[in-house]
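One thing: can you check what follows?
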Amino acid sequence: MTDQPARWTRATVYPDMWTDPAEDPRNSEGVSPDGELATLQEFLTSYRLTLRMKCEGLDPEQLARRSVPPSTMSLLGLLRHLAEVEQDWRNWISDGDPLPKLYGERDADFHGAVGEQAEADAAYAALEREQGLTDAALAEHPDLGERLGKDGIAVRELMVHRIEEYARHCGQADLLRECVDGRVGQ
């Protein structure tokens, strides 16, 4: 006997996928978007959706499970962390004082990720709110070459960094989810 969950997937067409292509909300009909900004936004949207998909169907305790000791990382912690990061990106493009941290000092986003329904609901709400605020702030700057904030970060660099951050955390979410209930796939 082992405590490790059996590996499984909902996909029937390709056994290494999260779900069948016809049911995958990330699949879009038609050609890819025109232009660099639209392409970057589509990749960001896809990674954001991937993270949510990796979390769906789990209860708060499962979301908060730290699957790779001694790491404090959990799926719930990732949701909280990315809300914090979205807010921080707005700090990068602002000339004003930085906004206060959502969850407190370093790693509080992970340490405070406890398996309670209210905490899970709050994490989802915070992530959605912070994504919307960052998207709205950047929508005011459609020129990817424009430099913003005290450090003069280019909008393009920020967009690519956002995609990189979500992509990295989606890879971690793959492993965390597999440890929680055995579900695998891209």
Notes: The chain has one domain: 50-181. The mean pLDDT is 92. Strands lie at 147-148, 153-154. The longest strand covers residues 147-148.
